[in-house]
Amino acid sequence: MPLDETATTRRIRADKRRASALAVVLAVQALAAVFFIADVGQDLLLGGVTPHSLLEAIVAAALVIGTAFGALQMRQILIRIRQAETAMSIASGALFELIQARFQDWRLTPSEAEVAMFTLKGLDIADIAQVRGAAQGTVRAQMTKVYAKAKVSGRGQLTSLFIEDLLIASNGRGSAVREEI
């Protein structure tokens, strides 16, 4: 799974696939409805109302109604996708701003901030060293400085600082655990 993939992004991607499949089904339904409506019209012009033309009219009406309901469903999916993408954009922007503010408060150097960001994304020391083209010892030393400046003992506590800030921002409450540490 890519680093930036979340349950929400997977849900958005699934909704987009669902919308694409629904669009194909709607197109087929619409074509079938047009065919049946034209056929019913031709049958009525040539032979009047017969049981066969009445049955075709019912099928055409059902297809039109089904297509209309499908179009409403498609509209709801597209609205849900748009809302989720907007919420993700706002949340990711807010999280990025929160992280940057914390890094400034801690007076992290650009290298320390980069290492801290990779740590928050879940990379381990070896991966960070490889991505940055640095020695693992250098990355380890930078992480130690980050932890010291943030007044935490490790990756879990560093991550929990940001989660707690988001929880406080989202509902105005937070735990008193951080103040006790």
Automatic annotation (TrEMBL):
Residues 105-162 form the HTH luxR-type domain. SMART domains: HTH_LUXR. The keyword Membrane applies. GO terms for molecular function: DNA binding. Coiled coil: none annotated. The chain crosses the membrane at residues 21-41, 53-72. Keywords: Membrane, Transmembrane, Transmembrane helix. GO terms for biological process: regulation of DNA-templated transcription. This is HTH luxR-type domain-containing protein. The lineage of its organism: Bacteria, Pseudomonadati, Pseudomonadota, Alphaproteobacteria, Rhodobacterales.
